[in-house]
Amino acid sequence: MNFSDNELKILIDRSDCEQLLFQKADKVRRQHYGTDVYIRGLIELSNYCKNNCYYCGIRCGNKEIDRYRLSKEEIMSCCEQGYGLGFRTFVLQGGEDVYFSDKIICDIVSSIKKIYSDCAITLSLGEKTYSSYKAIFDAGADRYLLRHETANPAHYRQLHPDSLSIENRKECLWNLKKIGYQVGSGFMVGSPFQTTELIIEDLRFLQELQPDMIGIGPFIPHKNTPFGQHSSGNLNLSLRLIAILRLMFPHALIPATTALGTITQNGRELGLTVGANVVMPNLSPVKFRKQYELYDNKICTGEEAAECRKCLEKRVKAAGYNIVTHIGHVKK
Ligand code: 5AD
Ligand code: FES
Questions:
Q1: Could you tell which of 37, 304, 308, 309 is best to mutate to test the pocket of ligand 2, judged by most ligand atoms within 8 Å of the CB?
Q2: Distance 192 CA to ligand 2 centre (A)
Q3: In terms of Cα–Cα distance, which of 165, 101, 169, 175 is closest to 139?
Q4: Residue 93 scores a pLDDT above 90
């Protein structure tokens, strides 16, 4: 569906007609994906990061956290465990850790692909050059997640230090598309200084980019960041935006994010009922989970992968949907 700016403003701001919006979004989701929910096993490679984003708990300026990075063996063992639990997509996510050179990432990607040739590999490792993205794609990576965070240059400046820019972020996204990755982007809901007009700019940018995957979740403050005293994004606004995205991008893969599940107990289930069709439980070794804290009180930091898998199975079923274990490419 195509909305005018005025229509978007009403859908974003007004909660009085949101039930209708939610129902319509679920109808569209069922037309394209039925009750299917795709699962992605998230492996958090490293909490080292050279960047210092004002919202993020693993920013290099946070001296309070213990830094870790997984070895190749640890990563392979996460995959083995995940494969056994039915995961057919592995998402390797991490801070921008210079230790993970192209050579090391390519080796990890091709090693995973060699054993699990029926699986997709998604990377979420931040900004890289065209040639790095290309080398990693050639090594076997299928998808890349890189949220644009905010499409507006002045707002981008309010959320990031000078070393980062929206121009570079957008160029990375276009490069990823050009190389042939299935691309995911997105933004936080209720990030500091965000307005309805800025959200509309985000939606317009996504329309331009036409990503296969769109990840949004509420901003949640982290105590050791400059935004530690800001308030979290609003639950219902997050849900309305998921629903709007489903209507604007009927085929997109839209996760019910961990952040949504963190601001409220059944947040991910609610996300599924308003248009989301993906969940991304954690496969990282439990002993490091707490250290990958992008925001305060992140859920699932104490549970083993198998427990999360079981818990999600129940939650997804209770919400009226079904986890499917195939590779889960976008339907176009
Ligand atoms: N609250 C919510 N989401 C966050 N992210 C980073 N920090 C926070 C936070 N404090 C999101 C960013 C990033 C993704 C990996 O996590 O949007 O792209
Ligand atoms: Fe992790 Fe429920 S999904 S404990």
A1: 308
A2: 28
A3: 101
A4: yes
The pLDDT of 182-189, averaged and rounded, is 98
| Atom 1 (ligand 2) nearest CA | 308
Residue 63: CB atoms within 10 Å = 6
Query: Can you give the pTM of this predicted structure?
Result: 0.98
Q: Which of 42, 300, 323 to mutate for ligand 2's pocket (most ligand atoms within 8 Å of CB)?
A: 300
Mean pLDDT of the chain: 98
Please give the pLDDT value at position 332: 83
- Relative to the CA of 311, which ligand 2 atom is closest? 2
- Atom 3 of ligand 1, nearest CA residue: 219
Residue 210, sorted as left (phi over 0), alpha (psi -120 to 50) or beta, turns out to be: left
Ligand nearest to the CA of 238: 1
Q: Residue 218's closest CA among 201, 200, 240, 244?
A: 240
Torsion of CA 238, 144, 316, 1, to 10 degrees: 50
Nearest CA to ligand 2 atom 4: 308
Task: Determine contact, residues 169/149, Cβ cutoff 8 Å.
Answer: yes
Rounded average pLDDT over 161-190: 98
Going by DSSP bridges, is the β-strand pair 41-46/89-94 parallel, antiparallel, or unpaired? parallel
Q: Which residue has the tokens 């039915």?
A: 86
Q: 249-288: per-residue pLDDT in tens?
A: 999 999 999 999 999 999 999 999 999 999 999 999 999 9
Digit-coded pLDDT (tens) for 16-73: 999 999 999 999 999 999 999 999 999 999 999 999 999 999 999 999 999 999 999 9
Paired tokens of 137: 């794609």
C-beta 280 within 6 A of ligand 1: no
| Shortest-distance ligand to the CA of residue 146 | 1
Sign of the alpha-carbon dihedral angle for 210, 214, 217, 219: negative
